[in-house]
Amino acid sequence: MARHLITSAIPYINGIKHLGNLVGSQLPADLYARYLRDRGHEVLFLCATDEHGTPAEIAAQKAGKPVAEYCEEMHAVQAEIAEGFGLSFDHFGRSSSDRNKALTQHFAARLDAAGLIREVSERQMYSNADGRFLPDRYIEGTCPNCGFESARGDQCDNCTKQLDPVDLIDPRSTISGSTDLEMRETKHLYLRQSAMKDELSDWIDRQADWPVLTTSIARKWLHDGDGLQDRGITRDLDWGVPVQKGDQPWPGMEGKVFYVWFDAPIEYIASAQEWVDAGKGDDWERWWRTDRGADDVRYTQFMGKDNVPFHTLGFPVTILGSGEPWKLVDYIKSFNYLNYDGGQFSTSRGRGVFQDQALEILPADYWRWWLLSRAPESGDSEFTWEGFQDGVNKDLADVLGNFVSRVTKFCRSKFGETVPEGGEWGAREHALAEDLTRRVAAYARHMDAIEVRKAAAELRGIWVAGNEYLQAAAPWATFKTDPEIAAMQVRLGLNLIRLYAALSEPFIPFAARAMAGAMRTDLGWPDDVTGALGALPPGHAFTVPEVLFAKITDEQRADWAARFAGTRA
Ligand SMILES: Nc1ncnc2c1ncn2[C@@H]1O[C@H](COP(=O)(O)OP(=O)(O)OP(=O)(O)O)[C@@H](O)[C@H]1O
Ligand SMILES: [Zn+2]
């Protein structure tokens, strides 16, 4: 048994998230956490909401609420949706927690003591129309790197280049649209990332097994152009972690807060503290402090590609630069983007399918399966209603659902709702057991490597093998000439359902529980596949489950395609 710390990129608080956010971070993290727990490992799976910064202020303003109240409400909404999707966080924290405030201020003090923070007097965009400095995301303009016209002040969504607002061509305020912007003098703290460039570069070079997407983005920001740049870590805002050196004031920084990307990853640690505060655990340090037992923890992070620079460079500077024995990430699994029907998902533009809407129209497992089995791993992938209908109907309804239904109903009609006795395995059954043994081993290898699509394909192959067996064995025909053999075939079929429940749990936990419940069994991982195929003995009672997966009709597909074609109000 090993110990695994898993974090998902923390979703921003300014609204309900879309399916891209789900598949780019939380869902694969949940898949991995569930798998590791099923394999008997000790897992701490943490997430949180990312609550600071201007977008939260603006969203609260729009909703007519004080920002703290808005964040509290939206956190509850996101927590409920996460539960609806079966995201099995051990804790879902908040970056605005007192714990995160204190930790963020602590890290800033440590970094300052280590000489890794410098004060910069700089000129910044001030919007006369809005009466405020405009931080990063509230300035849009043309990307100097790729020419994309809606690049934000902190990053270009098109080419992922990190930017400074002054780099933008033709900048404008996204709050008011005003181009009446002027540069004003203000003082800020910069994190001296450049001072740690070589250390970071060596560290990245040692990660031969990381996804290329992760290391290539890291290398780009380490080496492109003038190399890794220092980053401003403070902002002229009200809403955020006040700039302090630990619990001491920071002269000259009064009224300023830390940049949201400085405090957000620190919340991974704070979330573990909140987990203890909530009475769900009793020791966060054994997960996070290498001097307190976290040395043997394997730490894996999940995120979309735009978050990679902050996790490969910024946060490691915080961790390493503190000079304290904090746990550093061991593996960063990153994802490309899921696009929506010929364009991008967008929270701010209300484009795509949002998580609450998804759960309204279909159960979580339909989404989980489709999104994970088509995860944007090697490149961007696209959600289309045709593709979704096709995938759900073929994989879940025709293959898995159909198998479960045929076996249980046939058994009920010929033998009753107990596992039938009689008959012995023949060549076909032994061949199936061998095939499944190989496939389950491959499935586990892909899951261990967090190769999500490959794992899904193998799991589907395992379901298909059962269907093909059933088709070839044809117990309904065998029954007429040799009821004992038919009994053996059905017994194997029922045991396959049990096996499928256990193996499928990380992908489709709700259906897996329904299958195991109907078989009146648990979800134990099959270390010995052949043995597992005899786990339900003759005489064991079961029930025929409700329809596991209904097919999506053409009419539903057309309705949904029309309903989600525009933008959400
Ligand atoms: N279309 C997408 N496909 C896959 N992952 C995505 C997509 N959009 C965002 N992500 C990832 O989702 C996670 C949560 O994102 P976050 O809440 O910060 O929203 P975001 O990146 O600002 O996107 P948006 O503005 O569209 O909501 C991050 O890891 C991000 O990389
Ligand atoms: Zn660009």
TrEMBL record:
Motif 'HIGH' region, residue numbers: 11-21
- Tell me one GO molecular function of this protein: ATP binding
Motif 'KMSKS' region mapped to chain: 344-348
Known cofactor(s): Zn(2+)
Which EC numbers characterise this protein's activity in its record?
6.1.1.10
The record places domain Methionyl/Leucyl tRNA synthetase at 4-407
Q: In which broad location class does this protein mainly occur, judging by the first location in its UniProt entry? A: cytoplasm
Note accompanying the cofactor annotation: Binds 1 zinc ion per subunit.
Catalyses: tRNA(Met) + L-methionine + ATP = L-methionyl-tRNA(Met) + AMP + diphosphate
Compartmental location: Cytoplasm
Under the heading InterPro entries, the entry gives:
Anticodon_Met, Met-tRNA_ligase_1, Met-tRNA_synth, Methionyl/Leucyl_tRNA_Synth, MetRS_core, MetRS_Zn, Rossmann-like_a/b/a_fold, tRNAsynth_Ia_anticodon-bd
What residue stretches are annotated with the Methionyl-tRNA synthetase anticodon-binding domain? 419-568
List this protein's GO terms for biological process: methionyl-tRNA aminoacylation
- What are the annotated GO cellular component locations? aminoacyl-tRNA synthetase multienzyme complex; cytosol
Sorted UniProt keywords: Aminoacyl-tRNA synthetase, ATP-binding, Cytoplasm, Ligase, Metal-binding, Nucleotide-binding, Protein biosynthesis, Zinc
Which residues bind ATP per the record? 347
The top EC class, named as a word, is: ligase
- Chain residues that bind Zn(2+): 143, 146, 156, 159
Family, according to the entry, reads as follows: Belongs to the class-I aminoacyl-tRNA synthetase family. MetG type 1 subfamily.
Q: Which PANTHER family match?
A: METHIONINE--TRNA LIGASE, METHIONINE--TRNA LIGASE, CYTOPLASMIC
Give the record's subunit note.
Answer: Monomer.
- What does the UniProt function comment say about this protein? Is required not only for elongation of protein synthesis but also for the initiation of all mRNA translation through initiator tRNA(fMet) aminoacylation.
Please state what the protein is called.
Answer: Methionine--tRNA ligase
